[in-house]
């Protein structure tokens, strides 16, 4: 084969491979949307993070405003310390609260932010004052059973009280 | 005389071990020689370009067609399973993650081993059998830097490009079946995919995998060809061994790399 046609084919091959890589990076991967440079860090301390993972989305009103960048266990407060990177163009008041929520019944867990009313905004390195832990199914069921038992106990008492009243009458 | 029989059995085990170790050492020395004498494959880049044409460009058809069909099958089967749990919208992330992380690099490497690796072994084995390599040495041309090194670098360059094309066209195949034929929502297909696939964690690791596979497959093919007994039978055995050994090496290396790359993710 002639040298120029060979060169042309190899050039087309290399360019095609690079285009495929670019497609993978921008169309398939997340390089297009969110970039890591323009962010600021805030922290939240939670009693229980449930199944929260690094890179889980942080949403406010359903819009992704940042990502979880680190999860550690604070051995002094015995709480989970979650590091969050928020995109620079989204500013939140200082008294914003963070809650760990679940998308759908079996979906992934994310952090939901509820904006407060403070005049000042959260800065790099600040901490959320109000946090709400992840919902744990066992605890929830336990609480429901406990409440039901308490209600039934209360009903009995009131029923007995009613009987007594009846007797008195 | 039972003790002589025992001695013979032990002897054959010993010979097998010694031969194995010797071959491994020979292969390592051959690999090092290739690396050391690879200057010419960049100084005379045309040698390498020619080999990229024969191992890379000529493998394009099989890589693209297989990638398309693998993606389409993933789309169909993934839909069947995900639809039971009502999460068809996760089809995009299923197709993309399995292609970028595993199937792209591994299947492209297996196809490359059987398409290009076997050809390299047969070519070099036949060059050796017809004493072309010895003739080169007579003319003071180092056959390793003139014949072996350009083929090695061509394989190392082609492999990641082929794997990337395999993954890209596979994702397109998944899109074709999932969105165009079955009717999964297009927006959630792409957005779930982009949410699940991380550039550093998934795509870069996939490329690293394919570079490692390229090195392994090409080095095995070159060594088997260079080491082949100079007979028709020897070349045929060497070609078979290339495909078998590279397939095992690719799958074994894939497991090891996956353990290091994706543990705990």
Please tell me about this protein's structure:
- The complex is a heterodimer of chains A (169) and B (265).
- By secondary structure, chain A is of the alpha/beta class.
- Chain A folds into two domains: 1-33; 39-140, no CATH class.
- Helices cover 34% and strands 30% of the residues of chain A.
- Chain A has an eight-stranded mixed β-sheet, with no helix packed on it.
- In chain A, strand 5 (97-102) and strand 6 (109-114) form a beta hairpin.
- Chain A is elongated and about 95 Å long.
- Chain B is an all-alpha fold.
- Chain B has one domain (62-260).
- In chain B, 88% of the residues lie in helices and 0% in strands.
- Chain B contains ten helices and no strands.
- The radius of gyration of chain B is 22 Å and the shape is globular.
- The interface between A and B is medium-sized, with 27 and 32 residues.
Topology:
The complex is a heterodimer of chains A (169) and B (265).
Chain A: H1 3-28, E1 39-46, E2 57-60, E3 63-74, E4 79-87, E5 97-102, E6 109-114, E7 126-127, E8 130-132, H2 137-168
Chain B: H1 2-36, H2 39-43, H3 45-55, H4 60-84, H5 91-129, H6 132-138, H7 143-182, H8 186-196, H9 199-227, H10 232-262
Helix pairs in contact in B: 3-7, 4-5, 4-7, 5-7, 5-8, 5-9, 5-10, 7-9, 9-10
Order of helices and strands of chain A: HEEEEEEEEH
Q: Number of DSSP strands of chain B?
A: 0
General form of chain B? globular
Secondary structure tally, helices of chain A: 2
Principal-axis shape of chain A equals: elongated
Largest sheet report of chain A: 8 strands, mixed
Q: Approximately how much beta-strand content do the residues of chain A carry?
A: 25-35%
Any idea what the radius of gyration of chain B is?
A: 22 Å
Tally of individual helices of chain B: 10
N-end to C-end Cα span of chain B: 61 Å
Q: Residue-averaged pLDDT of chain A, rounded?
A: 81
Low-confidence stretches of chain A: 161-169
Largest β-sheet summary of chain B: none
């Amino acid at each position: 084969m002639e040298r120029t046609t060979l060169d042309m084919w190899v050039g087309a091959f290399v360019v095609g491979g690079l285009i495929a890589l670019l497609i993978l990076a921008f169309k398939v991967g997340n390089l297009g949307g969110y970039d890591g440079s323009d962010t600021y860090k805030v922290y939240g301390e939670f009693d229980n993070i449930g199944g929260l993972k690094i890179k889980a989305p942080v949403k406010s009103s359903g819009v992704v405003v940042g990502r979880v960048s680190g999860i550690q266990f604070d051995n002094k407060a015995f709480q989970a310390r979650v590091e969050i990177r928020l995109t620079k163009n989204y500013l939140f008041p200082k008294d914003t609260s963070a809650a760990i929520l679940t998308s759908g019944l079996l979906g992934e867990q994310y952090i939901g932010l509820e904006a407060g009313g403070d005049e000042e905004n959260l800065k790099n390195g600040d901490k959320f004052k109000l946090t709400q832990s992840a919902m744990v199914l066992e605890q929830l069921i336990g609480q429901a059973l406990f409440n039901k038992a308490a209600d039934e106990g209360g009903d009995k008492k009131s029923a007995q009280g009613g009987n007594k009243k009846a007797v008195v009458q | 005389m039972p003790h002589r029989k025992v001695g013979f059995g032990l002897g054959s085990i010993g010979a097998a071990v010694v031969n194995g170790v010797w071959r491994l050492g020979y292969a390592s020395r051959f690999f090092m020689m290739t690396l050391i004498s690879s200057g010419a494959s960049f100084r005379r880049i045309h040698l390498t370009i020619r080999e990229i044409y024969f191992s890379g460009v000529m493998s394009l058809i099989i890589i693209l067609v297989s990638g398309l069909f693998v993606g389409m099958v993933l789309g169909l089967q993934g839909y069947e399973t995900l639809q039971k749990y009502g999460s068809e919208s996760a089809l995009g992330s299923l197709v993309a993650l399995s292609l970028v992380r595993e199937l792209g690099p591994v299947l492209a490497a297996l196809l490359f081993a059987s398409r290009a690796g076997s050809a390299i072994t047969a070519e070099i084995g036949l060059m050796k059998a017809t004493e072309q390599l010895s003739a080169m040495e007579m003319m003071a041309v180092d056959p390793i830097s003139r014949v072996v090194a350009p083929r090695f670098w061509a394989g190392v360059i082609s492999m990641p490009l082929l794997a990337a094309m395999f993954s890209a066209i596979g994702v397109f195949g998944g899109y074709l079946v999932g969105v165009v034929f079955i009717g999964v929502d297009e927006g959630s297909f792409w957005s779930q995919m982009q949410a699940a696939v991380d550039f550093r964690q998934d795509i870069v690791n996939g490329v690293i995998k394919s570079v490692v596979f390229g090195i392994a497959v090409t080095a095995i093919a070159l060594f088997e060809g260079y080491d082949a007994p100079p007979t028709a039978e020897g070349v045929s055995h060497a070609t078979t061994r290339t495909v078998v050994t590279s397939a095992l090496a690719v799958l074994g290396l894939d497991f090891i790399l996956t353990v290091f790359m994706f543990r705990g993710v």
